[in-house]
């Protein structure tokens, strides 16, 4: 049986920490705990509570993404100030969400859910794995399709957490997720630069190069990971 | 809008659990409500929003509605207490389901149909039962379309099964 108790405790702890001031690390932990529990709900085949976690993650994600961008030390001053203003504008919305009773009610409801039988978890894990294989084929067909890469990234993350829940975590998935993370951050930086009217042309060009490099790194990492993934698919009886 | 007020399915007895909120559905409650869901499906019922109480038996009942849900679900403690204006404010959408507990669901139905929450006893819901309302979600504004006991829905499911 796979019980969510420890992770529900982490979610509650991160929620309490994120409510105090502007603790960026707590917001990150809250987002990750929420993703892990969403993966657990998926393993259990639950429909409910996933939207509640997604609502919480959306509010955390908007601020957290800017925290990550602002951690870079090579940002032009005007762009940095613009990002900081943007983050400051998002913080009240995050604070409202963190103090919304829905957060505590979600934790409360999660804490009461019974452990998932292993056979149910395994059946649903195979579905996640099949989804990765399917999305991987879409990426193989078109390497430069950012949407396909993004969809693959999301399912890989679900697979990583699902495997961790059944005690079969795979380091290669963590490495792969890191490569996808760099690509995602660069895509976001590019999108925000497109919105920023006073962008430094040299920085825009450098971001374009970073984006190409990040995309190439992801494709390399994905290609390298495929034998591990196929082995995993075989082990879990998933074609 | 169409509003479906749904009482949780049969749950374990109170004595078997430390708190009322922790009572899970029984195997029979699970099976019977799955039949209710099939019957609602046969009636072309779909939901673009499902609000449910955080108590385990309501969470599990709402989860069984999964095949009928096109939109979002939301857990709210407002369904584990007396009906309130705050609860009605949350009811937004074209076809919404509320999954909760007695006597509060009956009071909600009475309030929406007659304007008087105290008339709840006139609108009882059995376990797994569904009350179907239509109109703007405000006191004394909704019209009672149907009151469907769980048993009637299960009979409908049997009658429509291939």
Specify Rg of chain A, calculated over alpha carbons. Answer: 19 Å
- Low-pLDDT parts of chain A are none
Poorly predicted regions of chain B: none
Q: Summarize the helix and strand pattern of chain B as letters.
A: EHEHEHEHEEH
Largest sheet of chain A: none
Query: How many strands in all of chain B?
Result: 6
Distance between the termini of chain A: 26 Å
Instruction: Output the radius of gyration of chain B.
Output: 15 Å
The interface involving the most residues is between: A-B, 17 and 20 residues
Please give the CATH class of chain B: Alpha Beta
Number of strands of chain A: 0
If you average the pLDDT of chain B, what whole number results? 96
Label the overall shape of chain A.
flat
Distance between the termini of chain B: 31 Å
Per CATH, which architecture of chain B?
Answer: 3-Layer(aba) Sandwich
Q: Bin the strand percentage of chain A.
A: under 5%
Quick structural gist:
Chain A has 239 residues and is an all-alpha fold. In chain A, 81% of the residues lie in helices and 0% in strands.
Description:
- The complex is a heterodimer of chains A (239) and B (162).
- Chain A is an all-alpha fold.
- Chain A has nine helices and no strands.
- The longest helix of chain A has 35 residues, at 201-235.
- The radius of gyration of chain A is 19 Å and the shape is flat.
- In chain B, strands 3-2-4-1-5-6 form a six-stranded mixed β-sheet.
- Chain B contains five helices and six strands.
- With 162 residues, chain B is α/β, with parallel strands linked by helices.
- Chain B has a single domain (2-160), classed as Phosphoglycerate mutase-like (Rossmann fold), CATH 3.40.50.1240.
- The longest helix of chain B is centred in the N-terminal third of the chain and has 16 residues, at 27-42.
- In chain B, 44% of the residues are buried.
- Helices cover 33% and strands 22% of the residues of chain B.
- Chains A and B meet through helix 3 and helix 5 of A and helix 2 and strand 3 of B.
